[in-house]
From TrEMBL:
Organism: Alsobacter soli
Protein name per its UniProtKB record: Peptide ABC transporter substrate-binding protein
Annotated spans, Disordered: 322-353
Keyword Manganese appears in the UniProt entry: no
InterPro entries (UniProt xref): AAA+_ATPase (IPR003593), ABC_transp_ATP-bind (IPR050319), ABC_transporter-like_ATP-bd (IPR003439), ABC_transporter-like_CS (IPR017871), Oligopep_ABC_C (IPR013563), P-loop_NTPase (IPR027417)
């Protein structure tokens, strides 16, 4: 199946510029070598904690940021090969829906003005009557009425504002929507309405979704495939049924435990994550997850001869020194970047003395 979005080893680094005096400024590796493909009509989810690089990746997908390395291809066209006019034409086909509609909608414009502006910017429906008809069609598709067209964002509820933001995204008839935390700013009851709306629009308009989220329940409900992101990299990737049903990376297992799921085939839940994600200005050596990894601590406790002292306690030497290569699942299509991905015993507590 053809890929609507094809991301190839894309990276985005910030900083690193020379200073007038002293060493260059440190480099923040916000996205560092991410690859994935989203076939037409599919839903690809990117999940991880705040600070993992998800939103930066979203902006790379729509061309708001240029990559420092690698490339993003939309329908086979590399974004880096496009000039300003070509990039504007492409943006009509790949639209971004942001997390907070209060920040993404202009408070000085009514819903009608916001939707009309999108048509004008992209040179669509030059006739006024045709524009009005398209605006009315778009608000109808997202469940708003004609009465909402004259309202300003502050006169709408949170769910109505997000519906208006989605209407602005689909009014230009895109092929792909990049949804950056589309429901996290909404009440739980409204979240379900927006999720159902998005899935309905996907089927009616034949859309491809790339969803940025930290909500694994949303991933299991909406997505076909998922990439689990940590410090700018995918630590696990594959079909949702495999990654969420039987997670192999300790980070994915901890995220699942935080959402009330334990790893498949065990009675005890995975340890819940402790500590905070390190700064992208100082990514740990070896496996970037080793400073917080519960599996690494269990292995070090069971095999102390293979451990070394670190500021985070005694940890396996290979975790501290060696970057793990992606390991395909036996007989499956998922991959996990963990030294213990194929060692289930590494994730169980050591026997009591």
């Amino acid at each position: 199946m053809d890929a609507a979005v094809d991301v190839r080893a894309v990276a985005r680094w910030f900083g690193g510029r020379p200073r007038l005096f002293g060493a260059p400024a440190p480099t923040a590796r916000a996205v560092d070598g991410v690859s994935f493909r989203a076939p037409r009509g599919s839903v690809f989810a990117i999940v991880g904690e705040s600070g993992s690089g998800k939103s930066t990746l979203a902006r790379l997908l729509v061309g708001l940021l240029p990559p420092s390395a690698g490339e993003v291809r939309v329908d086979g066209q590399a974004l880096a090969d496009l000039d300003a006019a070509g990039l504007r034409r492409l943006r009509r086909r790949i639209q971004l829906v942001l997390q907070d509609p209060r920040a993404s909608l202009d408070p000085r414009m009514t819903v009608r003005q916001t939707l009309t502006e999108a048509l004008v910017v992209h040179g669509l429906r030059p006739d006024r009557e045709a524009r009005e008809a398209r605006v009315a069609e778009a608000v109808g598709l997202v469940g708003l009425s004609a009465a909402h067209l004259a309202r300003y964002p502050h006169e709408l509820s949170g769910g109505q504002r997000q519906r208006a933001a989605i209407a602005r995204a689909i009014i230009c008839e895109p092929d792909i929507l990049v949804l950056d935390e589309p429901v996290s700013a909404l009440d739980v009851s409204v979240q379900a309405q927006i999720i159902n709306l998005l899935m309905d629009l996907k089927e009616r308009l034949a859309l491809t979704f790339v969803i940025i989220t930290h909500d694994l329940a949303l991933v299991e409900h909406m997505a076909d495939a998922v990439g689990v992101m940590y410090l700018g990299r995918f630590v696990e990737q594959g079909p949702v049924a495999e990654v969420c049903g039987a997670p192999r990376h300790p980070y994915t297992q901890s995220l699942m435990a935080a959402s009330g799921h334990g790893p498949a085939g065990t009675r005890e839940p995975a340890p819940v994550l402790e500590g905070s994600i390190p700064s992208p200005l100082a990514i740990p050596s070896g496996c970037p997850f080793h400073t917080r990894c519960p599996a690494a601590r269990l292995v070090a406790a069971r095999e102390p001869a293979l451990a070394v002292a670190t500021p985070d306690g005694r940890l396996p030497r290979r975790c501290v020194e060696d970057i793990p290569a992606p390991r395909p699942a036996p007989g499956g299509s998922s991959v996990a970047s963990c030294h213990f991905a194929d060692e289930p015993a590494a994730h169980r507590s050591p026997p009591s003395p």
